[in-house]
Design a protein that fits this description.
Layout lengths: L1 E6 L4 H11 L5 E5 L11 H17 L3 E6 L2 H6 L1 H12 L4 E3 L2 H10 L4 E6 L1 H6 L1 H9 L4 E6 L3 H6 L3 H16 L5 E5 L7 H8 L4 E3 L1 H15 L1 H4 L8 E5 L4 H11 L5 E3 L3
Parallel strand pairs: 1-2, 1-3, 2-9, 3-4, 5-6, 5-7, 7-8, 9-10
The protein binds D-glutamic acid (DGL).
Amino acid sequence: MKLGVFDSGLGGLVIAKAIGKALPAHDMVYLGDTLHVPYGSRSLEAVTHYTQRSIDYLFRKADCKLIIMACNTASAIALRNLQQNYLVKNYPDRRILGVVVPTLETALEEGHSRIGLLATERIVRSSIYKTELEKIGRGIKLFQKSAPLLVPAIELNTKEWIRPLLREYIKPLLAQNIECLILGCTHYAFLKNVIQKKVGKGVHVMSQDDIIPGKLVDYLKRHPEIDRHITRRRRNSFLVTDITDSYIRNARSIYKKDIDIKKVVI
Ligand code: DGL
């Protein structure tokens, strides 16, 4: 069986690559729902439906034992329901892990008490980070800012727009004297160095490609009953629901080598 990584499109590849470094022998399947990206500006019904179909594909066709839901928007909207209903009913011995709780845990482990969050409109509106933080970090303050134009600007690689957009989005967060800034969207990992420069040394930029691999290694150590089912043949496969030249170019530039990307119908 395999380890699955799911994202709405491109950004999750940065997380998949980092997971591959931490667990090089584990067989991994990446699925990007590029036909329906961006999830961040879609309706609740659409995100729920597309996420469920993608997850179902990863379990049924790709034989995954465990799936990392790298997409923050899908984690915010569809994860709880999939864990509590779909999994229990269909695959009670398999698991789906999201990225919100591990990210907040890391912020707390680092001792931050004023946390900034930059995320898609859907994530901010869902209040998922606030809800989860209230469970594990009483008294810790969270300041959120949605950045609706950032995903399209990153996808189109329009550098001249990215800097002014970042300035606008980050300004109100810095005004709250945040100590760390969570990049709550897979796409923003591309900008982590630019954002770190913008916010200065006093604010730690927390990107999920730096957080999730370590948390996953730790989870697998604590759950040998899951880990022992994942085969170790050093095989990675990359699946998408729509394929374009720019996706292939971007994927190559993330992996710094050619990777074989297949289009699938989910
Ligand atoms: N993958 C999405 C997330 O992490 C960002 C891109 C999108 O809106 O689909 O929220």
